[in-house]
Amino acid sequence: MRIGVPTEIKSHEYRVGMTPSGVRELTRAGHPVVVQTGAGSGAGIADAEYAAAGATLEPDVEALFSGSDLIVKVKEPQPVECARLREGQVLFTFLHLAADPAQARGLLKSGATAIAYETVTAPDGSLPLLTPMSEVAGRMSIQVGAHCLERAAGGRGVLLGGVPGTLPARVVVIGGGIAGSHAAEMAIGFGADVTIVDRALPRLRELAARFEGRAKTVYSTRDAIGELVTRADLVVGTVLVPGAATPKLVDRAMVRAMPNGSVVVDVAIDQGGCFETSRPTTHAEPTYVEEGVVHYCVTNMPGAVPRTSTFALTNATLPFVRRIAMMGVDSALEREPGLSTGLTVRRGEIVHPIVAEALGFSR
């Protein structure tokens, strides 16, 4: 199977779908890998490293797409990339289709088979390809939130951890999953006053034990969220419903009641976001102010730290790429139940039931 790795073209996306070590693994197994010239430069990976690992470098993206059986990317295909896909081809990448009907229509028209990283599952039900990016985004949410709280960035001028004689910032993390727990860990490290909200009591118990009293845990209800959010300096939304649009847990009235210059970071924006006032932004223009509150809603947060993110992501995706290349997509989907849960588009249909429901498409 011929594998193509194009340069990412989403705004300020610097990650790349494969590392040189991944190329070496695949080419040694007899699978040609074509990497677009310059694809790894944003992550600090030179073309010479790919060539030394056995990749063919291709400057022409049209030739790369047309000549590849399997396209391995990071972010969802942009409209021009959807137009390059063809019937019989396999696309393996993040899709987040529930919040992107235009992309869904493009993929359906292409006739390609699209497998989404974010819904591939492990035997224990976890999401092994989403996990590393959730870890990065969770940690970044506190880093960017702390910056946005600075007055020069539009915030209310609060230092996250405070100093002796002053109160630390109040940080609320909505969702206690992978991203949420990493956000809480970072906020605790900064010395903030941290509260984690989740609706799973077993998870709250785990987090309470893990953080040994350094973070408060609160069961998620509308009243609890409203009370906490309106007193917070920084709110991080990390709620995930795999494949589906994120529920709007924080409405406009709650945001309006927050202190002027407070900050929300919507890690869930890829799936539509969990704040009613959220709208997608880019690294070029990452923030906007709505109801007096600074909003950071970048849809590819880990793209800001592309070297860390590329290696973390490809460590997880490579085994699946190898199986698809070795078995062919049909056999891989049949023999790997976890991979089949990522199957989203096939033969012009949305075949993932949750995604289909979110988009209003019937199977």
Describe the structure.
The protein is an alpha/beta fold. The protein folds into two domains: 3-120 and 306-359, Rossmann fold (3-Layer(aba) Sandwich); 131-304, NAD(P)-binding Rossmann-like Domain (Rossmann fold), CATH 3.40.50. It contains 14 helices and 15 strands. It has an eight-stranded mixed beta sheet with strand order 3-2-1-4-5-6-14-15. A seven-stranded mixed beta sheet has the order 9-8-7-10-11-13-12, with helices on both faces. Helix 10 links the parallel strand 10 and strand 11. The protein is globular and about 65 Å long.
Structure described in brief:
This protein is of the alpha/beta class. It is built from 14 helices and 15 strands. 36% of the residues lie in helices and 16% in strands.
List the keywords:
single chain, 363 residues, alpha/beta, Rossmann fold, 2 domains, eight-stranded mixed sheet, seven-stranded mixed sheet, 14 helices, 36% helix, globular
Query: What's the number of helices?
Result: 14
CATH class of the largest domain: Alpha Beta
What is the strand arrangement across the widest sheet?
3-2-1-4-5-6-14-15
Q: Could you say how many structural domains there are in total?
A: 2
Shape: globular
